[in-house]
Each structure stands twice: as structure tokens, then as C-alpha cells.
Amino acid sequence: MKGKDHLLLWLLAIASWLLIMPLRAYSDLWAMIAHSIVFAILTWWALKKYAPKAGMWRPLIPFLAPWILELTARCFIDNYLFSLPLTVMPLAAVIATALFCHYHKIWF
């Protein structure tokens, strides 16, 4: 996996996070669902494309960037963790998709 591939995944992850942010003004629940679905699809795509060459966990590192930005903003800027599930659920979607892609032969 080359540096440009990592950069592409970083940019896709941050762009999807930024595109879903305005949805939070409408509804936190729908933003959480949309964010989880988009990150699950991006995770599945990244694993199918890059995991055979780079290993299982290396393509998942760029998907932590929006999560770290979100958690930092909630802890230090907003100073409240009321909507922590909005931060944790997309990460759970990434982990669940990664586990499904890795263990799908055992489950089926």
C-alpha cells in the first residue's frame, strides 16, 4: 500500500465526515445512521481493495482520523460528551465491517 493510497483513504474519510456534518442540524439519529453506513461502505471497499496487499488492519488506520477529530472536538472544544454515541457508532461500524470481512468465511 503506497502513500498515495493512504492519502486517498484519509481524504475520503474526512470528506465523508464533513459531508455528513450538516445532517446533524436536522437529526442526530439520522446523522449517526448515515455516518455509520457510509463508513461501513468505505471500510468494505478499502478492505476489498487494499487488504490483500497491505494486510488486514493497515487500510483501517485512515478511518480513525475523523473519529479522533470528533472526539477531540467534543472533549476539549464543546466540553460535553452528551452525544458520545454519535462519535462511537461510526467507529463500531468500521470495526464490525472489518471483522465481518475478515471472518465472513467462518460465519457462513
SSE topology sketch:
Layout: H1 3-20, H2 23-26, H3 28-54, H4 64-77, H5 84-107
Describe this protein's structure:
By secondary structure, the protein is mostly helical. It contains five helices and no strands. α1 packs antiparallel against α3 and α3 crosses α5. The relative contact order is 0.16. The model has no long low-confidence stretch (mean pLDDT 77).
Major sheet size, sense and barrel closure: none
Q: What share of residues is helical?
A: over 70%
The helix count comes to 5
Gap from first CA to last CA: 29 Å
Q: Low-confidence spans: pLDDT under 50, at least 5 residues?
A: none
Structural class computed from helices and strand pairing: mainly alpha
- Tell me the fraction of residues in β-strands, as a range: under 5%
Strand element count: 0
Strand-and-helix sequence, N→C?
Answer: HHHHH
Shape: globular
Cα-atom radius of gyration: 14 Å
What is the mean predicted local confidence, pLDDT?
Answer: 77
